């Protein structure tokens, strides 16, 4: 059995990396600038990080804000030109001679919560992200569902938000995924900003909207309340579909625990189960769920490979 995995959380500007042992949170985190647009420089950077380690890891496990196209094996990760459209797994395996495991960041978050966080005592964990976008990942028995594609649990996309909230008509905004009416367009940071601009003709970032909501400002409160009404039905439906008994929330907006509680207040009564305990809860698996989740998926993948051998 492998001793260590080198895990990476790859973002548009920064690569974070740490060494992990099985069943433990990753160790000290090192940071590097993400090479802009140059795949060769990207591969060279990863190689040099491995060369600098005191001992060679058993595998590389990578979390990133994208998916692996299950038909072509190529990455769809629009905000990182250095790896978008590449077969990063094959390229890195050839360059380093190590097994490479790549997973979507929301999936890594969900696994991190299932293994180390709020989902520790639950069989089915549906991790949801309220960040730059709205995403999610689904875990059963600590194992990710549909790891290869990264689509399972992605409740943020689909033409589903209500068109009327109270007396007010809310248009279906166009989404980056090609559809319109996605939860992603109204419930992440940019979505909240878009909703506020539509309702009040005022440009205001999500943090300012949330602080206005906390301060009892009417406009900010209306924006947040509208956002909650738009996401409640789709999220309740997703929870019914998955059978999740806990829904840890992560991403920038979920750092606002009052917002997470408000989401739970609107969503829980719409679920069929209507449990007495909080369903949507703040994440508790630490500051590096991407690294922790990638490492856990990496160890699981190595175990599966060893069992088959
Ligand atoms: Zn969409």
TrEMBL record:
CDD domains hit by this protein: ASKHA_NBD_ROK_NAGK (cd24057)
Protein name: ROK family protein
Record InterPro entries: ATPase_NBD (IPR043129), ROK (IPR000600)
Signal peptide: none
Tree of life domain: Bacteria
PANTHER family according to UniProt: BIFUNCTIONAL UDP-N-ACETYLGLUCOSAMINE 2-EPIMERASE_N-ACETYLMANNOSAMINE KINASE, ROK (REPRESSOR, ORF, KINASE) FAMILY
Family: Belongs to the ROK (NagC/XylR) family.
């Amino acid at each position: 059995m492998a001793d260590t995995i080198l895990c990476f959380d790859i973002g548009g500007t920064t690569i974070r990396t740490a060494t992990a042992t099985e069943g433990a949170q990753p160790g000290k985190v090192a940071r590097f600038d993400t090479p802009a647009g140059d795949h060769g420089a990207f591969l060279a950077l990863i190689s040099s990080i491995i060369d600098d380690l005191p001992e060679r890891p058993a595998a590389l496990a990578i979390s990133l804000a994208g998916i692996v196209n299950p038909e072509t094996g190529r990455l769809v990760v629009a905000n990182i030109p250095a790896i978008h459209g590449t077969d990063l797994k094959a390229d890195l395996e050839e360059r380093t001679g190590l097994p490479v495991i790549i997973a979507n960041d929301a999936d890594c978050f969900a696994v991190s919560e299932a293994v180390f966080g709020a989902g520790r005592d639950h069989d089915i964990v549906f991790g949801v992200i309220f960040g730059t976008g709205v995403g999610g990942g689904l875990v059963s028995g600590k194992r990710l569902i549909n790891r290869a594609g990264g689509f399972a649990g992605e409740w943020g996309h689909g033409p589903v938000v209500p068109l009327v909230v109270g007396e007010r008509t809310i248009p279906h905004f166009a989404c980056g995924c090609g559809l319109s009416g996605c939860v992603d367009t109204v419930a992440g940071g940019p979505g909240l900003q878009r909703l506020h601009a539509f309702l009040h003709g005022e440009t205001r970032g999500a943090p300012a909207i949330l602080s206005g909501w906390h301060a009892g400002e009417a406009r900010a409160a209306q924006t947040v309340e509208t956002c909650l009404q738009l996401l409640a039905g789709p999220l309740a439906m997703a929870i019914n579909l998955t059978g999740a008994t806990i829904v840890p929330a992560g991403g920038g907006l979920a750092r606002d625990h009052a917002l997470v509680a408000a989401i739970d207040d609107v969503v829980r009564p719409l679920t069929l189960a209507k449990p007495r305990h909080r369903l949507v809860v703040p994440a508790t698996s630490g500051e590096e769920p991407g690294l922790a989740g990638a490492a856990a998926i990496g160890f699981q993948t190595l175990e599966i490979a060893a069992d088959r051998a």
